[in-house]
Amino acid sequence: MSAEPTVEGLAQELSTYLDTNRINQVRRAYYYAEQAHEGQMRKSGDRYITHPLAVARILAELKLDHQSLMAAMLHDVIEDTGIPKDALAEQFGEDVAELVDGVSKLTQIEFRSRAEAQAENFQKMTLAMARDIRVILVKLADRLHNMRTLGPMPYEKRQRIATETLDIYAPIANRLGMHSLCTELEDLGFSSLYPMRAKYISKAVNKLRGSHREIIEEIRGKLQEKLEERGLPGRILGREKHLNSIYNKMKFKQKSFHEIMDVYAFRIITDTEDDCYRILGAVHSLYKPLPGRFKDYIAMPKANGYQSLHTTLFGMHVNIEIQIRTEEMEHIANNGIAAHWMYKNEPSNVTSVNQARVDRWVKGLMEMRERADDSLEFIEHVKVDLFPDEIYVFTPKGRIMELPSGATPVDFAYAIHTDIGNAAVACRINRNLASLSQPLQSGQTVEIITAPGARPNPAWLSFVVTGKARSSIRHVLKTQKRAESLELGRTLLKKSLKGFGTRLSEISDGQKQIVVNHNQVNSFDDLISDIGLGNRMAYLVARQLVTGAPGEEPPVVQAERPTERSPVTIRGTEGLLVKFASCCKPIPGDPVVGVMDSGNGMVIHSDTCSRLPEDDEGRARLTHLKWAKDINDEFSVELRVELERQRGVIAELANAVAMADGNIERISVEDQNAKFGIVSLVVHVNGRKHLARVMRRIRNIRAVTHINRVRH
Ligand code: MN
Questions:
Q1: From CA 120, how far away is CA 708, in angstroms rounded?
Q2: What's the structural domain count of the chain?
Q3: Considering the entire predicted model, what is its pTM?
Q4: Helix extents (H) in 176-194
Q5: For 244-253, what is the mean pLDDT?
Q6: Which end of the chain, N or C, is surrounded by fewer C-beta atoms within 10 Å?
Q7: What is the pLDDT of residues 31-65, one digit of tens each?
């Protein structure tokens, strides 16, 4: 039995590229995690700490920075031992705590959702959630070690983890150019998911390898000879096909096992770019290259930064695929974005040329967008991944919705269905009630609460970010405004006609048409709608209809103020076109009048409001209103209370309002000195009687010296 790996073994490895101080920080994280996981065991029977240590080792092989290694040591601490993020920040700094927190969040997602069908979105979400790409690197290493030690897990769990690895994590590794990690994840995932198929293929591969050995060695020898003859440095590697890729080629490309395996593949690793081209010349002189198979990815790197020369030769009666690249190209081809950190951390180890090249990696991805080839899609993805401008949230059933960043629950509701958006009244984010305007974040579960008959709120337009939500809301409001303006306009017109002693049903179509033409509108409905919107006066339209001779002076008809006898009934729930004035805050029971506000419908004021016009002409334009009898809605009213300052008087005030079944919307102390204070209260009541009850309760408080209703 081999000895359990130790942190000292790791420290030794780290000494090749990290200084003592940093190695000690990694050690400290190890001991902290060891203590935190004390007593926990893995399914295999190993101490739990062996897992984070192994994860850190994987990252050490990639030569990642000390913070990533510390995060690897601590990556299960928040999730499994309940130590809070703050505690980690205090011990190891904000950066490390953020990394650990990021990894924990990704881990939680695995438990919560079962939307396998949306692997693509899952990959994106995973990346979007991790602001710091190192979170992904730690998570990938975590997953790799879990896959390596999947054996003792129960069957179901093994299947789930393997599927997830193939669907989510291997493609992410691939996207980040981490070829080695990707292929290992794929092969482990494939073997757990299809153990029999994996066994069959690997047996067949081994058998073939035996029978091919001779010819492979012969080709390798010839290649080696040629390099030596020309004095070119280079090591020659035979390339193995991976189980998963063999299986996929058989399954999806309908190729036979032998077709796939009948290719002899080598890689030559050399020192400089120049050597690459020289070696290319050398191998072309050894065997004839196949036309159309040569690719120069050194001069024209692939979108993910991959560089190499590819050529296929025909010799020894077989096809020989050759890749030629430098050590650095090899490193980047295998480790992709992880190579970025390695070089960045220890610039003394590499030439400045290397440094500059790797630094350009991410930037290059963006610049290469112009190049029109199949890598375009890749770049599009990576752009989204590394610079997330999208968020991914769950429906309660686990479906993933993709939204632009800044999207709110209202955007989410409209993204699901227009009807849901239109009927939304509230929402839950991660099961807690939340505001409809709160910007969502990746990974949240959002549930929209709807109510039959609910309508979009015009205020939503100020915070929605998606075009769909915006246009849907606008559309509904427009339709609604039209319907309401027709209704209000008709009510007002009927009332005015009554003042002229006639009725709308008695007006002939011909008369209507004359008035329509005179006012240069498209239809009689438009005319009525204009009245409802406050763009036309009902009285004038009524007069035109009655006299039938617009433009002429109308005959003097009936009472001067015909409206008084037939006030319009209001309920306060009319919708967009009937609003209550914020100055005088009328409540049911108050005498009220309506003022038509051009384009916006009617504003209801208390008839004593100081904002109302005082001249006769202005007064004549007011619409007389009366309240409906059975109003249950609440209306806000402002009270001003003068009181003697005493301990607990505010609480007593609040209590008095509550005792009278009033709701306090706002309470503030406006002005006070040592003895007296003035308190401003906004209370919800359902009418004058209710208000009287509230005021009586307040007046009964001993400290209260004066109370009055405020109307501006
Ligand atoms: Mn783990």
A1: 64
A2: 4
A3: 0.57
A4: 179-193
A5: 79
A6: N
A7: 999 999 999 999 888 999 999 999 999 999 988 88
Check pLDDT > 80 for residue 434. yes
Measured in Å, residue 141 CA sits from the centre of ligand 1 at: 9
119 versus 174: which is more confidently predicted? 174
Question: Mean pLDDT throughout 685-689?
Answer: 88
State mean pLDDT over 150-166.
87
Q: Among residues 46, 79, 132, 487, which one is catalytic?
A: 79
Q: What is the CATH number of the domain that holds 148?
A: 1.10.3210.10
| pLDDT above 80: residue 546 | yes
373 is catalytic: no
Cα 188 to averaged position of ligand 1 atoms, centre (Å): 17
Instruction: Let me know: does 704 contact 693? Beta carbons within 8 Å.
Output: no
Q: Are 442 and 384 in contact (CB under 8 A)?
A: no
Residue 372 lies in a domain: no
Looking from the CA of 264 toward its CB, the CA atoms found within 13 Å total 21
Contact predicate 521/530, CB 8 Å: yes
Catalytic, 79? Answer yes
Minimal CA–CA distance to 385: which of 182, 189, 168? 168
Same domain, 692 and 564: no
Are 514 and 550 in contact by the 8 Å Cβ rule? The answer is yes
pLDDT of residue 382: 46
In a domain, 390, yes or no: no
Q: What is the distance in A from the centroid of ligand 1 to the CA of 138?
A: 9
Give CA–CA dist 177/386, Å, rounded.
13
Give CA torsion, residues 170, 174, 177, 180, to 10 deg: 50
